[in-house]
Every structure is written in C-alpha cells, then in structure tokens.
User: Fold these one by one.
Assistant:
Number 1:
Amino acid sequence: MTGRRTNCSDEDLVAWILGDLDAEAAEAMTEDLAASPDLRERAAEYRMLHRSAEGLRDGPVIRWRRFHSPFGAMRVAASAAGLVALSWQDESDDAFVAGLEGRYRSTPVVCDTDRLAPAEEQLTEYFGRRRPRFDLFVDLTELGDFQRAVLDAASGLGFGETVTYTEIARRIGRPKASRAVGNALGRNPIPIIVPCHRVVRTDGTLGGYTGGLRYKRTLLDIEGRTDLLGSHAQTEIPLA
C-alpha cells in the first residue's frame, strides 16, 4: 500500500520537529506522518540535522559575527574561553572565516549573531565615547609564550594610558626586546580589546599600527590623548 500524498511544506515539518506547531496542526502533521513513508523519511533527515546543530551549538566551536563600526565592517570571533579575533580589514566574510579555520583546524567555525552581541554593544559604546573599559574575556592560549606575555602586559594598560615598547619589554623581563615587542603587538589578533594602540615609541611618536596609523590616532583621540597626535589632533575617521 502506498502512502498518501501530502502538501506538507519543509517549514511545517521543521516547526513540528521543533514543537512550534499548535495542537491542531501538530495532530494533523502526526496523521500525515503515519500515512506517508516519504514524509517520515524527510522528518528523519530533519531530526538528524537538528541533533547535529544542537550538538554543534553546545560543543567546542569558534563563533563569529559581523557588524558595522566607524572603521567599516568589523568582525569578531570567540572560543568558549573568550575573544580570539577582531578585524576590520578589507576582507570578505569568507576570508575571515578561512583565517579562523586555518588557526583552528579541528574546531568548527560558525556564525552566531546572539552570543557575540555583547562584543558589538561594548565596542559601539567605546566608539561613542561612552565606555572606558571592556568587560569581555579574551583567549590568548593559542599564541606563543612571548606574544602572550606582551599582550597580557598591554591588556593591563588603562583607558588613555600609554607606555613605550621599551617599557613593555621591561615589564615582561626582556628589556632588550623592544623590537620584538613591536612585532608581537603588530600581530595582535584582538586589537582595541587588547589595547596595543596604547603602546608608543620612546621619542613620543606613535610607532606602527596594523592597518594604518589613522586607526591608532582615532583610538587615542577617543581616549583623550590628543597630546600625542600633533598635527593629526583632529581624528581622521568620523565616529558619528
């Protein structure tokens, strides 16, 4: 005996699996399933996909999110332990995800617009000059010992506080490694949150910054350090 044909849509079937149908519609769906082998097969496939998605959501993953900022499209990513990436470079979502997949070869990378909302909210407040500190965890565990020490030292700098590359080198017990400190800061995967823009040269000039000095000038301007900006005292990037 062949099963009866139904007009059940995929949306209705998914809603039934998720328990989102009302009682009458759920009862009708149950009757359709009992009468249609094809529909039961589709339901089994959707159940499998649902279980896989649930397991992925609760298992170890790297989550990422894109949002608008004064620096352009900004992308942020996090492990279960904290933020692992922040980028506003001129790249596509696919390129950003590919970079994460290269760093975390055995961990799925998924788009998650909910769990990373606090990062967007706090960065938006920072750009609006309404937030002097971030209440966000960072995850530096994949980095080498030297770079992690440098970024840990930079993380201790307060809003508007600046130190030199030489001072960071001294704080980590490597007083002759100021050039290596600069290189480590240049590879900072979580700029702004880990505030490498607060590290400057001994002569009072700004030093380098990944992506361009105009971003460093803008961040220092947000934090009231126009004394460091010289002829660039007016920020180059509109924040409104």
Note: Strands lie at 62-69, 72-78, 83-87, 109-111, 163-164, 199-200.
Number 2:
Amino acid sequence: MTDTPSVIDHMDYATLTQNALRDVIREALIKASHPQGLPGDHHFYVTFLTRAEGVSVPEDLLRRYPRDITIVLQHQYRELKVEGDRISVTLSFGGVPKVLRFPLSAITRFYDPSVQFILEFDVEEPLEANDDGGPIADTAPPSEAGATTEPDPDAPPPDSGPKVVSLDQFRKK
C-alpha cells in the first residue's frame, strides 16, 4: 500500500468540461432556433429530467414522464428559444401544442443521429416526496421511460450506435 497524497483538483476540471459541453448544446440549439431551422439532416434527441430545478412542463406530461422525457427536435417544433442557459420550445403531444421549458443543467443526453454525435451527463436527480414522506420511485415501464414527439428510423438500437462521450472518463476515482 502506498501513501501517495491525494490530488485535489482546485480548478474543478470536471465542472469546467461539463459546462463547455453544455455550451456545444446551446450553440446547436441556437442554430436550430433560426427561422430556416436545422440544416441538412440534423435533428436532435434531447433528454432532460422533468423534476430538475428550473424545469416547467405541463402537469399531464409530468404525470406521464415523472423522471425524464426525451423530445425530438426535427420538423415539428415551434418557438424554440435559447436564452442564456434556459431553453423553451413548443411541441405537439397528441396534436395538442405544449410549451416545455428547461435549463441546460437538466439535460442528461443530447444526440444528433445524422452525424452520430452524442453527449451524456450525470445529473443529480431531485428527490420528490410522496404522500408517505418517502421518495417517489420511477415506476414507469421501460417503454415509458422517455417520450418522443415523432418516431425516428435513424435511432440506433439500444446496444449499438455512436461512441458516447461521458464525463466519467475525465473524473478521478
């Protein structure tokens, strides 16, 4: 057993890296918000925690997706706005337009299948209390774990696809 001193990262490179990668998402969403929309075949799957701080989704969607939701930004989105670290977009669910608002910090996954680009983030999930005072368990079946506003034939099967950039590889264990 060696007694090497533990290195302390006073710069907090993990947070700096995470913030830089979220800026990539911000810039991509800004491009998508332009009147001409997304260029070429680009489209995004954005997964975010529905109960994270700063998230605003309609109550019926919150009941349907109590943990997280995956939205598709491809053809049928409106009023996409990027203001600082906050995103808002209008999407149709069952033909009914709904406004979703969320901060970049609530995003757990960003995927552009047209170029096989994916970012994943470890985001602490807020604990919600149920009527008994205990935490709410995510009891949604796996097929209900996320929602998309339209199907995508380009989506990879769960066990294949692009190389994932995970911040864990940069963290010292």
Note: The two ends are 17 Å apart (CA to CA).
Number 3:
Amino acid sequence: MDSTSSPDRVILLHGLARTPRSMAKLAQALVRDGYAVENWDYPSRHHDYAGLLALLRPRIAALAGAQRTHFARTHFVGHSLGGLLLRSLLSEPLPFPAGRLVLLGVPNRGALSVARLQARRGFSRLPEMFGRPARELYRDAPWLADLPWPKLETGAIAGTRRFHPLIPSAWINLLHRATEQGDGTVELDSALPPALTHTLMLPVGHSFLPDDPHVIAAVQRFLKEGRF
C-alpha cells in the first residue's frame, strides 16, 4: 500500500454467536499491513436475518462520511453468517468506493448440520441455543438461492477439517455419520459456490477460520492482489 496515498479501510463482520474477539488476530494482521480496520460487533443471536440487515444498513451508509476524505476504498471480510449479511448489504447501492470482499466459511447454500440439529432430541430449541438466524440457515433454503451477489471482486475460503471437538455441529455430523466434505459446520459446496472464481480450501475447522495463520495470510494476499 502506498504510504503517500489515502489508506484502504477493511470492515470485519463475525459469525453467528461470536464476537469481534473471533476476528481479532485477523484485525491485527491487517492493521500491520497499513489498513484502517473496523471490527464490527452486532447482536447476531437476538434477531432474525431481516432484523440483522435492518440494524447493519445504517452502519454501511455511515461509512460514506469518512470515505470521501480519509479512505481510498473499503474492503470487507465476513465469517459465516457475517459473510451472508455482507453479501446482502453490499448488493445494495453503495455511497462510497468499495474494494474487495472475502468470505470465510460462509453457508451460501445453508448447512445440513442445521437440519440435523433440529432433528436430534434435545436440540429442538436451536434458536435459543445458537441464535435466531440459525433456524433460517438450513440447507438450500429458498431465500438463500435468491440472495444476490455484490459487484465486488469476491473470494471465498473454505475449511476442510470435518471434525474438531470444540465445534458443536461437527459432533452432530459425526453422530449422523455424515460423509460430506466441509469444515464441520458448512459443506464445501456451500462455502465455495460456482458463482465464484477466486476460491481456496484449507485444512481448518469452521470456528477457527478467522484466526488461522494460513487463512489470515490468504486474506491479506487477496485484499492486496485479488488472488489467493
């Protein structure tokens, strides 16, 4: 990044039932690269998808204020649900120059683990456990097929570690003897849809994508060069 020009800004958006702490290592790495980083928090568990969009739209609109004088472009990185929200928000008219978008373990087609969780005895209270949007993220939900793609240069990173003991949905998939490739929560063909040409697979579990050093290096490279 040219130190004599205005810096680029990067907005980070965490996943369902997570906090900005889950994106902290990525934020630190991008700050070292010279970006102005905003690691946003939002109440992911307490609203449905439409409600979360309504909360975040004013924050996207407010980015225009400082953009004109302080920043060249604004890039975006979203993990899981955060990536879906960014897809929706960035498909709307943007009052500032947008850069690139990186999706980390995003359930673009939903996740089979959601239906499996709902089917297991003792897990019927899924929204109360993982948050209200969880019920909407079942595999091939019609609303996901209708979700638009932003006109930003977009890259997606998918994890391929199918089981990690700290990922609850990975246990559910194990109990169901699931054979799909994925990161323990999101299947590979959901995280890497055919609409994208810039994709990368790494041996990481879903929850750990944002702070994995190889994932962080790939995000840095994509934001800078448009490739993984």
Note: The mean pLDDT is 88.
Number 4:
Amino acid sequence: MGKVNQKGRSKHEPFIRLHRGVTGSAAWKALSNEAKALLIEIWARHNGVNNGQIGMSHRRAREALRAGNVKVQRAFADLQAKGFLIAHYRGHFISKVLAGEGRASEWELTTEDYSGQPAKHTYRKWSENKNTVPTLGTAGTDIGNRSDENIIQINETSSDTGNRYGRKRGAIGS
C-alpha cells in the first residue's frame, strides 16, 4: 500500500474505486445514467469513515446532476431498489418552523465497510426478474391480457357480442 498520513489516509489525491465487481453486476447494468452519476456523486463524499452518514440532499443532487426533481427521485429510488444505497436518515425541510432549516438524507454505500462490518454488497443479490408486481397485459392480470388461452373464438353467425379481445360478455376465460 502507498504512503499514508498519521490518520491512515492516503497522502495522494482521493479517488473512487469503481471495480469490475460493481460495473459488471446486473444491477449496475440496469441502472439509469442519472442513477450511476448520482452514485458516483455520493461515493465522492465518502471519506473512508463516514459510511452511513454521507449526506446528500435532493437539492444538492439536482445541482450535481443538472437534472429535475423527478429524475433525481427516480435515481435515488433506483439505487435503493437495486441495492447500492441504504438510507439511514431521511432528510426533511421545514420552511415555517425553522425559517428554512432542513437536514439532508444520510446514506450508506453497500459497496463499502460500515461500522466495522464488511460491505453488504446487496446489489449482487438483485436480479432482473425480481419485479413481483404484475403489469398490465401480463399473465396474472385480467385487464388487457391477450394471451391465447383467454381469448374466445366467436363465430361470425353468433348473435352474442364480444369485446375487442373476442371475449363474450360476462364470460371471462370461459
């Protein structure tokens, strides 16, 4: 290892260690560009001992990414859902009581050690098929499902009317 000062920190310029274990993971590849940029911004605030207390507010994130509120919210949600960040403190902004005072959210990077414990690496457990919420038009939802097993063939001479999926009124899947 290189030269360090009395506190064990590098005497050289700080850097972010973005290794192939992170960039090669399925979770990293599924992140949006805004989420990747936000992760690097938060990682840049990590000094080796402040994991779990890395402050990053939505306002600072919007300034750093030069993006709007919706993109920043999605980036934070994406990073948490894919296992790169854990929120230890949710920030707040009280405009009337404290005359505009607020406190930024505090984050833990799962790629770094936390409180003497090894890194959690929860992003490694994420997989593309973890979405358990059925979406419109997928198996398990009746609305908009156009799979062959649910479509009823209607005879042109039949007097029964069907909807646009070929189903008879009142008969779902029969």
Note: Helices lie at 20-23, 26-30, 33-44, 58-65, 69-81.
